[in-house]
Amino acid sequence: MDFKQGIVNIESTGAWQEKNLIVCLGSDPASTLLAIYTHRPSQLIILVDQNTPLVCVVAERIRSKISDLHAQKIHFWPTDLTGNILYKDKLIQQLEENEWIANITPGTKAQS
């Protein structure tokens, strides 16, 4: 996944209606996908370490199967291995506009 243009936003025709979810993505997507399918969020923010090529490949694979995720809006948000979030002001605005929950199981401990 290429973040040169910033945050990757995707509108979907998803039917999930649960609370919005923010979750990290690691090199093994299993825990991230488990969190997503458990919470069934209306909107989803996936934090992606843009400096780790394998994580970017995993993010692109998830993006290619986006129809399997039934969230209405999905944001792939660039971060780094230690959890430093890029476009922090936009993220704060996004979080203020809606109610969000965070699942800290996936990703690195530093990202949590």
Gyration radius, rounded: 13 Å
Distance between the first and last residues' Cα: 21 Å
Total beta strand runs:
5
Provide the structure class. alpha/beta
Q: Which shape, going by the Cα principal axes? A: globular
CATH topology: Rossmann fold
Instruction: Give the neighbour order of strands across the main sheet.
Output: 1-4-3-2-5
In the predicted model, the low-confidence regions spanning at least 5 consecutive residues are none
- Number of helical elements: 3
Q: Tell me the domain tally.
A: 1
- Under the CATH scheme, the architecture is 3-Layer(aba) Sandwich
3D structure, described in words:
By secondary structure, the protein is an alpha/beta fold. The protein has a single domain (about 10-105), classed as Rossmann fold (3-Layer(aba) Sandwich). It has three helices and five strands; from the N terminus they run ββαβαβαβ. It has a five-stranded mixed β-sheet with strand order 1-4-3-2-5, with helices on one face. The longest helix has 12 residues, at about 55-65. The protein starts with 7 loop residues before the first strand and ends in a 9-residue tail after the last strand. The model has no long low-confidence stretch (mean pLDDT about 90).
